[in-house]
């Protein structure tokens, strides 16, 4: 559909700088998540792309055309607001038709597209209800239908799932992904939930404090974060200070680990290593081979599908996440093993 | 019923109580509640600064109750009488009134009695019915006072013109001349709207001047019962027709909607701003006072209009039948008619004396003359030569109603029908 | 926006000039004679001298206005607080009818109420007394107060009171230590608005005051009833404006449009 | 199953009692004062006034006399004219201003102070300002003379003291626009700007956004402020009394004149006038409300 | 501390029955979670225990004493509200002291207990702040401290973590658990998040529609739900209709599986079997042994730590959850293996 580019975009609100500098290329048909803590400027970025705010500096390009001067109404974008912003005085049907009606689309065509979209979002039976009579998930779908019916070339969603409960979130996630894949619309959505970002997006743009911190595919982001902050934000819990040698050996308080030098880009010096808690094997007997750490189970948290163990190893606490097929008792002496390719390292000066 | 108070009243009206008795009783009563229209600040100031101080010397505290309409005080008296409160038990000791309100009290028998000629200072007032100059002391709007009220202030209806805009030579002195002037200068005149008394008075003057019998004010001294509706209609028709004829020439009349100011304040404003060239109201010294306090334009001067029909009347103090402090009220009434009070009143308010100059000593007359703000544009002799008395109170109501119906509401009915309807309504 | 500011503030300029004028005739843009030039010559106090003198009764009217406003506000608060609490918290049959009845005084002209009550009040001896005026002022102020307080209570929710109860506070302690302090901003806003409404009421005051008790609006009315405005009337107009300005400065801090909206947005 | 806990029932009953106890003061004050006043007004207009020694209840002659006269209908027309025109103008201006106020502009804080000023001061002040500005000898007239447009005060268009004049309306508008603005602004704050933004993204023009999105959402605020100011305008006395053009007067002024007449029976006539005002106001407002309710039901609000 | 019992408790609001019948025994010192969908009556139950509502029928017993007549103030319970209900006009310190102050506790004692509790919740440095100046987690801790200082015999928490973000939730969960274990207060908390319930509680009471559906230890609930509804609510996604034979063989559309007869109570007849998605091995080569199902990978969802595969097997879709150490490609032919003890069965008429 449409390729979206942000070039050196900055946004000030009076004396306050909400976005200090963002460059972002979004390919046609791509699904990109804007991820970041509250107040980092995600909504502001979306609003600038939509045309609801004008960047203080920089340009926004749609298919290489600068759209800075194009008013909202003519940008052919769609936006689903966090709190849906459904028109409370219109029925579901009227809400959905609104975008076509105001453009003066012929009646017959409106009807046709309405039926089609209501089928897609499975709201046929609620068409005469008012927003106040819908559940959160239904409202969400109305908001999406209302946007999609106008066939926007860029679809934006601001925390589309923030107000839904766990189960509904899952459903809506699947729904959005499917839809996006089917229609291939360039989609940008905002979230502060890293799981959501990783599940849905082709690429994730992590924004910290009005700056683009990393822009990468979900697994890259998760496995190879640029900085400790990103790692922390992505939910990593095993981050340890270590001295990395030229030969790819990392020496931490609990021992020395071999890194995979094809993956890890850090060459030498003080840094941090990241052990992904689900990539650690918890063994009850001492195994052979390298990358083995000895420790004692200190605590256990049962989450249903998975169990978290906290293991003390040489003064550090390593969290191990395991599927809950067996339960290891607290106090048990254990050996942890981790493969080199599951270790990531970051230089302290990164 | 307060027996003691009644005894006092009997004694006083019967001439058995000496003025010392009255004073003594007044001191023991302590206060006097005077109800009067509080819309004039000079009067209020005079009351507070001079009257209250002087009365205090006589052992009486003045409680000035400033009402927005004299009728409120009448209502209060009547309501209290209705609930059985007699002499010594009401709340109103004295009312400054005239005309219709007095007539009401008199009709309802709500007056203290014939006290006016029994006070020391009544010497300054002409009571001799033989003397035509006593008319306003004995009759109030044609109603016999029966000495139940005492005149304490006089007034005369005088017109003023802005000589900066009108040449003195062009000033009208008759209604016909006024009309001619208005035809030449449309919209430059208007009069206060009846039923305001200043407006009524202008209408009365026009009626006197157009009296088909040429008898001026004379027939209008009778009550409506004596005159009869039909005769009344006949007498007032020419005057009202005249007023109707000048309506399109009045201020705003050119656009079909003549404007009559609600009160003299509004008229003064129009006069000051040059919206009208002439303004008529009660106020012998109005020009001087107006120039003194900035409400009149600098070129304002009084002139004689309408010749022979400049209505003169008096204001009175009445004591209601249920006055709580009748003796104090008498003391106050006596004080009000003193030369001293008249002088200060003239000085403060510009209201002409209610006492009769020919009953005063030379020194006293001089004091009054010196206190007066002075006449501008006319002489006392001019004024004295053109006076006319007020209309009987019962007729005023009819004239008022007729004006409203005929002029304001543009009734198409014949004037005689309107008048008889008004008479009927009032009789109800 | 400038236009609007002009529309609101503009008229005050000639008013101010007029209050210092002695004689200001058409078509002069400034008074021909100023008050101060004539001040010594006049026996009577002029313009501001008059306004500030007891004869103008401005001081008396101000005191009356403030006194009546305060008493009305206090009474109104006292009777509306419990009712607002119920309206915000409870559901009961006939509630919407009840609420409609409570806002009826807003849509029935004051004249009807005032005149009808006048006769009875004269009978009862309440006309022309503070009591009478205060009582009639309750009629138009209650609906405003109820609406604002209900909104305030709704905003408060029951959580805090219940929490305090669980923590062991008695009913009275809950009221004193939790409910009242938390309601305070809303109550202050409601009280200010009620005070404002009360001090603005003309007709009811005029009828019930019987000319005996004057407040700023009735005083000003009798000054300008003739349709003209002299220096002292202009001065009084300005004086009457002052409490409004003071109130404005206070309310801006307390009356948040948001709170107001909850009361009137429906 | 056991019996319901008695404490629960007792507590429920006690709570209901407490509830009504809390409602009683307001209920009492309003029913006695307001309800009582209404009943009294109606009874007096039907000839019940024993305090004047009049008691011909029920006697429809006062209404008969009133409604039978042409001038009553003229007055009614005039009253409605003032009320409707000023309500509409104040509404339009108020809505416009409120919409402007949710946007950012320089000096907004100052302006937020300023616009409430008329709200804070009595109508009489507004009247005084109208007199000094709009009168034939007023400031605008003087300015016109200064610039040579007119040579005499009478050439200035008559705004005050005339029928269907703009003086009365100007005062109402001056005083009520802030009230409408405040109400609508508050509602707008509650509504937020999101729906408007959503509509603009969906391609709606400014007009479409206003009429199809904003307007329906602020309608409750519009309705309640209309009710309040219209009711006030129809019953207001001081402005038409001071600034009006005399006969025919607006109904409240007519009532006032009746009341100030020396003739007591005219007071009952005045009462009939007052009741008529209330009646007409209620009919108009009620139908307005019913109309709005229908609209609301149509758009699914309840 | 205190044993809490609900006996035949029912609660009507006018004509509406919020709780139809609940019997619940909570042991002294136990930590019980009330779990259930929105509107099922969790809050109502708590409020009845606290004394804020009176049950329409039935009784509530504290240590075998009927407390129905005891007013809230005297029940010695503590309750932490969902939105904390901190008094905004009081500082942290004042908020915390409130409960003691209103009881007229001597000043010296208040001081002492205040210091103690502020240390426990680590809020010493925030003691003079107002609630508006605190973060969500800090407010939460103030709310808890305020309740704990009164030494309640029963502590209740209504969705204590609902308003916190993912990271903070984890921290607070650990904090609450630790505290409860240390003080041993009988604790009841409400949640609609099954993960939270399972992680924190000793026992979980699942409430559906005003009725107690199951009351069990977390792992029992997760592994051996009473009904399909509970299984569904607990996040099970592999529920299949099956015919169960007397010998413990379950025949579903994709094949026959052997059940562990020691665990599964269902003897014979039509029913449902539950395969826990994290207990399924995904093998790329056909293994030996029983309980193997053949299928094809249809879809893959990457969640960071884990990957979900949807595998079609004989017309049914089986979800397999695996730690994301390797990624299996979509379209790959695979074999699923599940141990009998990880299969649970429910009779259709249960
Ligand atoms: N209109 C505005 N005026 C002033 N500051 C603003 C405005 N809009 C946003 N900001 C500020 O800009 C920063 C970024 O805001 P933004 O809404 O983009 O954050 P966000 O990343 O969407 O956060 P959240 O996850 O909380 O929605 C915030 O600090 C916010 O306070
Ligand atoms: N005071 C009340 N009056 C009437 N109905 C009520 C009242 N309180 C609760 N209910 C109803 O009782 C039911 C149970 O409410 P409750 O608050 O206990 O649900 P919950 O399980 O806490 O839900 P949530 O997870 O949404 O908080 C709901 O349907 C609710 O609408
Ligand atoms: Mg945002
Ligand atoms: Mg709940």
From TrEMBL, chains A, E:
The keyword Nucleotide-binding applies. GO terms for cellular component: ATP-binding cassette (ABC) transporter complex. Residues 4-234 form the ABC transporter domain. Keywords: ATP-binding, Nucleotide-binding, Transport. InterPro entries: AAA+_ATPase, ABC_SmlMolc_Importer, ABC_transporter-like_ATP-bd, ABC_transporter-like_CS, Mo/tungstate-bd_C_term_dom, P-loop_NTPase, Transp-assoc_OB_typ2. GO terms for molecular function: ABC-type transporter activity; ATP binding; ATP hydrolysis activity. It comes from the Bacteria. Belongs to the ABC transporter superfamily. PANTHER family: SPERMIDINE/PUTRESCINE IMPORT ATP-BINDING PROTEIN POTA (PTHR42781), SPERMIDINE_PUTRESCINE IMPORT ATP-BINDING PROTEIN POTA (PTHR42781:SF4). This is ABC transporter ATP-binding protein. It comes from Harenicola maris.
UniProtKB/TrEMBL annotation, chain C:
It is found in: Cell inner membrane; Cell membrane. It is a multi-pass membrane protein. Keywords: Cell inner membrane, Cell membrane, Membrane, Transmembrane, Transmembrane helix, Transport. One of its GO terms (biological process) is transmembrane transport. The keyword Zinc does not apply. Its main location: membrane. The chain crosses the membrane at residues 66-88, 100-122, 128-146, 183-209, 229-250. Residues 62-251 form the ABC transmembrane type-1 domain. Pfam families: BPD_transp_1. PROSITE patterns: ABC_TM1 (PS50928). GO terms for cellular component: plasma membrane. SUPFAM superfamilies: MetI-like. Belongs to the binding-protein-dependent transport system permease family. This is ABC transporter permease subunit. It comes from Harenicola maris.
Automatic annotation (TrEMBL), chain D:
GO terms for cellular component: plasma membrane. It comes from the Bacteria. Residues 76-290 form the ABC transmembrane type-1 domain. SUPFAM superfamilies: MetI-like. Keywords: Membrane, Transmembrane, Transmembrane helix, Transport. Pfam families: BPD_transp_1. One of its GO terms (biological process) is transmembrane transport. The chain crosses the membrane at residues 20-43, 80-102, 114-134, 164-188, 209-232, 268-291. Its main location: membrane. Coiled coil: none annotated. It is found in: Cell membrane. It is a multi-pass membrane protein. Belongs to the binding-protein-dependent transport system permease family. PANTHER family: GLUCOSE IMPORT SYSTEM PERMEASE PROTEIN GLCT, TREHALOSE TRANSPORT SYSTEM PERMEASE PROTEIN SUGA. This is ABC transporter permease subunit. It comes from Harenicola maris.
